[in-house]
Amino acid sequence: MKTKKSLSLVNLLLIHSKRAVMGCAVTMLCALSAGHVQAQFCFSPERPQLGQVVSFTYTPQTTPLASDSTLEGRYVRYGAPNVIQLSQPATVKLVRHGNDFVGELFIPRKDVAGMMLLFRNSNQPKRTDLNNGQLYIIPVCDASGRIVPHATGGQASVFTRSHFLYESGARPDPNWVVTLYEHELAQNPDLHPFYWSDLLAAQVKQKKPGYGPKVKADIESYLTSRPTPTTAELTTAAQLYESLGDFPKANALRERQKLVEPTGSLAQKDRSMAIRTEPNWERKKAAYQAFATEFPTSSYLPALTVMMTDGYFKNNDISGLITFVENQPASHTDVLMLNTIAFQMADERRSLPEAEKLINRAIDVLKSQPKPRTGASNWEAEKLTRQRQLLNTYARVREQQGDYAGAYTAYQTFIDPNDIDNTEPRLIERYFQCALQTNHVAEARPVAEAAVQIGKGTSGLKRALRDWYAKQPGSTPAKADAYLTQLEADLRADQRDELQQLLINEPAPAFTLTDLQGRTISSSAFKGKVIVLDFWATWCGPCIASFPAMQQAQTRFQNDPNVKFLFVNTREGGPVQRVHNFMSKHPYPFVVPLDGQQKVANAYKVQGIPTKVVIGPDGRVRYRTIGYSGNPESTVNELSLVVEMLKEGK
């Protein structure tokens, strides 16, 4: 059957889509101005109004979903640009009837100018029918049957101001967006203030020849037509000029905006930036206080408050910091920053009572802190994570003040014996130390042992466990060593298996060098021994950072005559005196041969420093590693295992 339509409605349909058809009868046989066709998308009533339920039928035979049987619809309601919050995607259920899929949508009683739909496979959401990127449209009509204002411009707003199309992996067609805006303004010229900037922004993206001068002329024309442009209009115009690369005109409009609104956002931004860049701490404090008094609700104030919190700490104004933090509302308080500051103070044993005040303030704020507007999609889980961080710092503060009982109680509240693998190793060490001080070893021992067994045991934790075990009735230092060895047995076996795969077998070039004391260091003197070569330079940060771990490794074998450590200075690029000065300032017990010409480094294939090379008793290179992981425990353990394996003839 034919559905009778006015000429203007047919024209609108042709603009909406080549295929989507409005207002078909229940039989779903629809007609455009030329002939009868089987409609792909039809709805009823033909001219839906606010507050009505719309029934629609989708026939996918000639679409990308022609062979799919499990379909669903995704839709948004839309209206004027200032109600874009309406356009939240939702799913509509479809019921299959033969080749057709039927669904229903309700039109709210206000603000809505239409609905936009796409269809997709409910099991494979990336399989979609987007109607050639134009989506399927149900425009709203008024009581006289005329399409309401924003019915086409609102579609463009969905494309440009929402993520509805992006959710399906598609992008808006700039040409179609411009067409929609232009059609809206042709039908409703009085809506020009709603769409002028969006239309110009779309034309910038469209990039038709000559678009730049045309867009600039249209900006000027619009601003001239407004006797007193609003700050929002001036801001939008400035952004348009920026998109065209005309920064002088953009800046001029921003200055004009400051004159129109001397206490507005731009003026606040300038004041905020001036506070941030003020180098004098006293003047910075005064400027911040003036800003907070004048603009107590400014969007720039929370970030400035966080900056000032950090400033008090960096300027070592701890008493001022406490007063400042206690006088801030929770909304301006960064609990993680307070946590970082308090933990650093605790670790350094500095101003411990003040550190306790800071962490207590952070804990109180977190209890009532609402979900942030950005990030933290699972706020409750994030809040628990933050709470554990704060309690860890609180425990550290109490521990450093000698309140081991309070610290132990705090540790108990957040250490999970079933999640040791994701627990920071030093935290476990501190927990066990507090348990020793408060006679709670029975409760803490399983956690400490589990940490050692999975490689999370620090040297301090292992030493504490060993010393505690050695003091138990019937125990001896030898039994304590065996106890610790047994705890690490499985871990070390796994590590040995992994290291076995990393061992190499290359000739070890002979070398003779002179060390810092003028002694001759020759590889031939160490025949039959395991030799550890550490290639380094004084300017190499990672080299120096690895020295404490290398000292531990050397100490572990200091009484073994069959193991020799040599710290070969190479690639120094400066006077030898620099090496002497460094070793005098850092008296590591190292033998330091000088490889000034890099001959030994090149012979041992050193591509970067630090590089550790281990030569086996058979005089062959068996292990080489470059860089430093930053983890002293793993460095010591890995190097020690390699040495032990080579001594065993592996």
Automatic annotation (TrEMBL):
What is one GO cellular-component annotation here?
Answer: periplasmic space
Q: Which GO terms describe its biological process?
A: response to stress
Q: Which stretch is the leader sequence?
A: 1-39
The GO terms describing molecular function are: hydrolase activity, hydrolyzing O-glycosyl compounds; oxidoreductase activity
Keyword Signal among UniProt keywords: yes
Keywords from the UniProt entry: Signal
| Record-linked InterPro entries | Lytic_TGlycosylase_superhlx_U, Redoxin, Thioredoxin-like_sf, Thioredoxin_domain, Thioredoxin_ResA/DsbE_sf, TPR-like_helical_dom_sf
Name of the protein in its database record:
Alkyl hydroperoxide reductase/ Thiol specific antioxidant/ Mal allergen
Organism whose genome encodes this protein? Spirosoma linguale (strain ATCC 33905 / DSM 74 / LMG 10896 / Claus 1)
